[in-house]
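During the second year of the project, the team shifted from modelling isolated chains to modelling whole assemblies. The rationale, set out in the original proposal, was that interfaces cannot be judged from single-chain predictions alone. As a representative example for this report, we include one of the complexes processed in the last quarter. Its constituent sequences, exactly as entered into the pipeline, are reproduced here:
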Amino acid sequence: MQTLEYFQVESTEPAGGELYRRIASTVITDHDILRVLDRLRIFIDPEVPIFIAVGITRTVPRNVIVRDFAGITYDGDKVILSIADETYLAPLLELLWRRFGKDRIVQPDRFTIEMNLGDEEREGIEEMIVADPTEGLFRDLIYTMQVICPEGFKVKRQSFQNGRFWFVASENTLQEDVTPLIEEQFSIMGEAS
Amino acid sequence: MILVPITYKGGVYRHDEILDLIEDMGGYIIQKHMIAQDVVLQALIPRDDIEILRTVSRPLAGEVIFAPLVGTEIAIVSMSLEIHHLPHASCDVAEYLRTAGAKTNMIGLARGFGKRIGLLSDEERDIINEHDLVIYLFGNFETCIKQKMPTFRRGIHIPIIVTGGPSTDSLKKLIDPPVAGYVGGFGRFMHRTKEAPEIAKLDEIVSEVSRVLDGRRSEIAKDPLSISPARLMDVILEQLPDIHDVTSPVPVVVQMDGVRVKLPYDPFAAQLKEVEVEKGVAVGTICDIRPSRMRDYILVKVKPFSDTGMMV
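Output from the structure prediction step:
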């Protein structure tokens, strides 16, 4: 885990904590979230029981717009999109269908989209936002934490805001306000930085 | 005649000669796997004849290896069927024990997760009890193992081996009253076991299982079984023609004190009871025949000599 700025797994049972460090590093690598994760701290107390993960993500890439992955040419009323990267083709088609209707969007082959659009409609098409990379990020992060956390910790709460995320899970009911627990872990992580 | 468990690995070419030789020696073939051009046999053969088998198999590039767990059925209990416990470490252990000759069944508990709510259902408990030995694969925290253990041992009357993250000594201290075997340093992990220390741990599990089963064998030897389970398997395969219609790779599973016959209980139990082992001795007289909790199979447990007064 060389690429993480800060990575620590602590437990009230040091031997178990050390084993969980190995689990966490395997899961993070397997789920390919190393590229977005900057700092991560996990605390586990099996006696309570509680699992707390706090972390900070790296700056994630900006929104993906049409211009990023498609070339645009105009032929009279026709707007032709030549797709360079197929990754975003499906969400783009969804967007276009919703905006202009299916009957006006033709796809003669896999990498070409033809549309009959008026002058007003074609305005801003190059800048249209197709995907938000942060959308799936939170889901992926939380899923990773769920896999790392001990089996049976089914009561969970999580948050992701401004690049800071936390995940708290327990086998028993969680206390109403988990903020002090999270802040404590964030401050330990801050102190160590 | 003392039978020893072995694994034979060789090519398909002329392997029928090996099968004939084992039968002529008075040995039993427990399992036969044909994998592409290779044949893997798990067999029990007379101890004095191992060298003959080695000599015959040499020109065929066959290999005879001692496999201590041939003729045993072992339950590997994974605490749940979620990604936390599968495929590693449960599958790794099950697969490795198979290389040592054991027939392993994996049992994923329906309510095993978590130290507070983990429990065994009566079906799970009964299925575990049908095996020769059970391995519980616990996690990494001492607290959890300590709290869970009483629940998981309740009603289990076969030897238990516990594996977990804490060291073997810690496991011994944690678990009271003691169980049959412990392997520490092998708890929850999320990667495949392929590094040397991990393989060594798997070897440790095999040797612990062998040690516990040797103890069980000497217990059985004090009051021997009326028929050897391997011979019982042979008799069933010979005299119950329907068994050859079973598509399972091992239609009759040999255990230490019986066999599991993979035929439905209701239509075949009466027929199985009448199968003659020797003139005047039917399977029903020397064995308990009961429905297995595993699907609708038949579980046959051989009665000891003290019960039947005969050995065939």
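The CA atoms of residues 3 and 37 of chain A lie 9 Å apart. The mean pLDDT of chain A is 90.
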